Amino acid sequence: MAKSVMVAYVLWAMGGPLGLHHVYLGRDSHALLWMLTLGGFGFGWVREFIRIPAYVGEANQEAEKDRKTRPTMVLPPVSPVRFVGQVFVGIYFGTMALIGLNSLSLFYLIVLPLCVGAGVHLVSCIGQQTSDLRKTLTTCLITSPIFYGSSLSPLPISLAASVTAASHRRHRPPPPPGSSQKLGPRIYRLGLAWLAFSAPLGYSIFHNTTATLYYLSDCVAALLDMFWFLPWLRNVFEYILLMPYRLLCVITGGGYYEDAWRRMLEILLKDYTEKEKEALRVLSLEIEASLEDITRSYRKLAKTWHPDHNPSKDAEAMFVKINEAYEILLRRHKPQKFK
């Protein structure tokens, strides 16, 4: 069935940064890239306003099997836009790996270069082109030891991988007869790819790093400000991003109140260190203990173990331990008090 330019533009306007129009046109690699970068950080989405007719023409050409007549041995023309996209997306994937996967063993030797190479290859596979994945990843693995341990290593690795991918660019071979895929399995695979990208990052933000929800909210606000020229689209993104909180309110029966949001932040932001966990054990407290609970328990235990009231030979050492635990937890909770 022939694709419609009008439908493609409607999907571009409604969910372009999420790649809906690319899903419609069968450009799954492009759709995944847009899902992971919100439409090429907004710039690629805007640029596509003049590119959609060409995309629709390519999709209809494939449907008519005209690609079979194209000599696949002839190299596609060099595209500076594609090369720049490869470099930036490779750096982007590498940066996300630095945030979410840097605790893994052999991170700088294997994990980081593979992530950068995956980003570069994703851009290489957009449209009717592809590249040699094995050679791209090999280049990344060879380059990574040179910049071992550097937080700037995604840049040179991505540059080397992009040069390799551009050198081995080729036309995508025509699909075998009867290989047209249904929408359901395609969406399923796109969802798995998105989950594989976002899950380590989300886990890192909320469990393994010092990033807090306040920092995350600032990042989201900055992201939304990118769409100042289209207020309605900004409102759509804001609604989607707040959906988890609204769903939580519906499930718990709560309302959209600032105090409820603050209480939830207090719980989520309590990422205790081992030293602070030991202090909680000394004061016989649970993780969710409030500042009032800590003070109450401290006063009770300090009175019990004070050397002037307790003749035990361990009283003085225990009293010092209780004071140290209280000071640790006091430093922990004072910055979290809301004004």
From TrEMBL:
<dbReference type="InterPro" id="IPR036869">
    <property type="entry name" value="J_dom_sf"/>
</dbReference>
<feature type="transmembrane region" description="Helical">
    <location>
        <begin position="31"/>
        <end position="50"/>
    </location>
</feature>
<feature type="transmembrane region" description="Helical">
    <location>
        <begin position="7"/>
        <end position="25"/>
    </location>
</feature>
<feature type="transmembrane region" description="Helical">
    <location>
        <begin position="239"/>
        <end position="257"/>
    </location>
</feature>
<feature type="transmembrane region" description="Helical">
    <location>
        <begin position="187"/>
        <end position="206"/>
    </location>
</feature>
<dbReference type="Pfam" id="PF00226">
    <property type="entry name" value="DnaJ"/>
</dbReference>
<keyword id="KW-0812">Transmembrane</keyword>
<dbReference type="Pfam" id="PF05154">
    <property type="entry name" value="TM2"/>
</dbReference>
<dbReference type="InterPro" id="IPR007829">
    <property type="entry name" value="TM2"/>
</dbReference>
<feature type="transmembrane region" description="Helical">
    <location>
        <begin position="107"/>
        <end position="126"/>
    </location>
</feature>
<dbReference type="InterPro" id="IPR001623">
    <property type="entry name" value="DnaJ_domain"/>
</dbReference>
<keyword id="KW-0472">Membrane</keyword>
<dbReference type="GO" id="GO:0016020">
    <property type="term" value="C:membrane"/>
</dbReference>
<feature type="transmembrane region" description="Helical">
    <location>
        <begin position="83"/>
        <end position="101"/>
    </location>
</feature>
<keyword id="KW-1133">Transmembrane helix</keyword>
<protein>
    <recommendedName>
        <fullName>DnaJ homolog subfamily C member 22</fullName>
    </recommendedName>
</protein>
<comment type="function">
    <text>May function as a co-chaperone.</text>
</comment>
<feature type="domain" description="J">
    <location>
        <begin position="278"/>
        <end position="339"/>
    </location>
</feature>
